[in-house]
Amino acid sequence: MIHLMVGVVAVAIFAALALGTYWFGGPIYNESRAKADYVANVQQAQQIDGAMELYKQENIKSVTGEDTALINNLMGYGYLKDAPPGDWKVNSNSIYKPLKKQSIEQCTIMNKVAGFDIKDLRLNDTSGARPNYQGCPPCNGEEVDGAPSQQLQDAVSFKRYPGCQFIEG
């Protein structure tokens, strides 16, 4: 009977420690996950870019196609072994992986991990002169009556940030 009580107490202590670790260490885990995702995406983009450059040097022309077709061409020619996971947008001028909709917190963590200034006053404007993006710039914006909106102008000026929010207009 004493062994059963010791076992129950040990399980309870272990459960309390696990819950405490998750409760107090949650932000650290989120930041670590965002950092790992960011590094993985950067490395995958570098692999695609390296394959395109190698193709260009060996064939003295750019590889044809865009997005999935271009990646499949690079794999078919033997410049990429496998397609990087995700929906990559690739052409001769840019390589990026659109992010699924994410929370402001995740977006802010990704920008912080990438070394971008999330305290940029243009992101956190409380004066009312522009929208307050809470540390996470817009990825997109809409024209309003044929004229560029503030969101559209901000999306262009903040396009270097890796984490962004899709603004639904």
Rough shape?
Answer: flat
- Structurally, the number of domains stands at 2
| Alpha plus pi helix count | 4
Q: How helical, in percent, are the residues? A: 40-55%
Tally the beta strands: 4
Strands of the widest sheet, in order across it, are 1-2
Beta-strand content bin: under 5%
Q: Structural class per helix/strand content?
A: mainly alpha
Query: Alpha-carbon distance between the termini?
Result: 65 Å
Biggest sheet statistics: 2 strands, antiparallel
Explain how this protein is built.
The structure is a single chain. The protein has two domains: 29-98, no CATH class; 100-169, no CATH class. It is built from four helices and four strands; from the N terminus they run ααββαββα. It has helices at 2-59, 67-76, 104-113, 150-157, and strands at 89-90, 95-96, 143-144, 147-148. A two-stranded antiparallel ribbon has the order 1-2. The chain is flat and about 80 Å long.
Set down the secondary structure blueprint.
Blueprint: H1 2-59, H2 67-76, E1 89-90, E2 95-96, H3 104-113, E3 143-144, E4 147-148, H4 150-157
Antiparallel strand pairs: 1-2, 3-4
Helix pairs in contact: 1-3
Summarize the structure.
51% of the residues lie in helices and 5% in strands. It is mainly alpha-helical and 169 residues long.
What structural keywords apply?
single chain; 2 domains; two-stranded antiparallel ribbon
